[in-house]
Design goal:
The chain is of the alpha/beta class. It has helices spanning 15-29, 41-46, 87-96, 107-118, 143-164, 179-188, 202-214, 250-262, 282-300, 320-323, 332-339, and strands spanning 2-7, 33-37, 49-52, 100-105, 123-127, 167-172, 192-194, 220-224, 228-229, 232-233, 235-239, 245-247, 266-270, 306-311, 314-319. GO terms for molecular function: 6-phosphofructokinase activity; AMP binding; ATP binding; diphosphate-fructose-6-phosphate 1-phosphotransferase activity; fructose-6-phosphate binding; identical protein binding; metal ion binding; monosaccharide binding.
Length: 343
């Protein structure tokens, strides 16, 4: 059996470990041949690939980024729901002599995996995203690393904030789902965590910040980039890779408003792509490796059209259709649980 491995969408810590896990199981144990396409679907379209074997993946587990590169180049023309012409795609697929794909990515990539599977292209998904917003899996690899980086930033901002009696506002990633803000805020003991799913008024935020000041403390506010201030998300110039308005800067808007309303000196920090970079945590290395192994085993069993999902402490192959079509957002009870301790 010959498998093609491809990464798409934003990078996520643990992608290299997932590739390593899949290759060691598929090549060394099952006797498969594997190739990796460079820079996502660009490599597939342009014939840019490398052979994947044990020497190619040596020492990959602790490395951040992804050796294959990734991009948001589309695999074929058309959008979900439209009639898709896969004739050119199939011709390339056949020319490579592939028997199946292992696709590493988030919601967009797994949606493509589902489309390909529905059209008869053998595909298995490996879920990665720092946002943890992919359905049918408890956690995606990359999330734990992003939360750990954000929690460390909170620890560092708290000491400087306390020194100057300032309110510190930290912006983390999270366009439509606030999992990073929720977990990092809880881990770092932030007094306020603002999520895209749950709007709060400026008055309420300032009330929490003031109550912290009145107790003799300095506030730490965590805000997801997709939090809607006065009903609208804060955007930067240009569009992202999906043609959506580029988010970012809500902390820089929120901080002066807090200062004006409360009289408390307030500073903003935008963590940005730091959350994606560097070595993955041990948790993400293990999860990614187990995911790669499970995907290779699923290919051996010809369990196409599935995704390797973490459910409890087990990696379970679930239908791709269960993983796509809706984002996994923070449920109301989880936010309510955290909100009781704000201020």
């Amino acid at each position: 059996m010959k498998l093609g491995v491809l990464c798409s969408g934003g990078d996520s810590p643990g992608m290299n470990a997932a590739i390593r896990g899949a290759v060691l199981r598929a090549v060394d144990v099952h006797g498969f041949e594997m190739i990796g396409f460079m820079d996502g679907w660009r490599g597939f379209h342009e014939g840019d690939w490398i052979a994947l074997d044990r020497p190619a993946v040596r020492g990959l587990s602790p490395l951040g980024g992804v050796i294959l590169g990734t991009s948001r180049v589309p695999p074929f023309a058309g959008r979900p729901g439209e009639e898709i012409d896969l004739s050119d795609f199939r011709a390339r697929y056949d020319a490579y002599g592939l028997d199946g794909f292992l696709l590493i990515g988030g919601n967009g990539t797994q949606t493509v995996a589902s489309i390909l599977s529905d059209h008869g292209v053998p595909t298995i998904g490996l879920p990665k995203t720092i946002d943890n917003d992919l359905s049918a899996t408890d956690y995606t690899f990359g999330f734990d690393t992003a939360v750990s980086i954000a929690a460390e930033a909170i620890d560092r901002l708290r000491t400087t904030g306390d020194s100057h009696r300032r309110c510190m506002v930290l912006e983390v990633m999270g366009r439509d789902a606030g999992w990073i803000a929720l977990h990092a805020g809880m881990a770092g003991g932030a007094q306020v965590s603002l999520l895209p799913e749950f709007p709060e008024t400026l008055e309420q935020v300032c009330e929490w910040v003031t109550s912290v000041r009145d107790r003799g403390r300095s506030s730490l506010v965590v805000v997801a980039e997709g939090f809607r201030l006065d009903g609208a998300a804060v955007t930067r110039e240009g569009l992202d890779g999906f043609g959506r308005p580029r988010l970012g800067g809500v902390a820089e808007v929120l901080a002066p408003l807090i200062e004006a309303e409360t009289g408390i000196e307030t500073r903003a920090t935008v963590l940005g792509h730091v959350q994606r970079g560097g070595s993955p945590t041990a948790f993400d290395r293990v999860l990614a490796t187990r995911t790669g192994i499970a995907a290779a085993d699923a290919a051996l069993a010809e369990s196409w059209g599935t995704m390797a999902a973490l459910q409890g402490d087990q990696i379970t192959m679930v239908p791709l259709a269960d993983a796509v079509g809706r984002l996994k957002t923070v449920p109301a009870d989880r936010y309510a649980e955290a909100r009781l301790n704000f201020g």
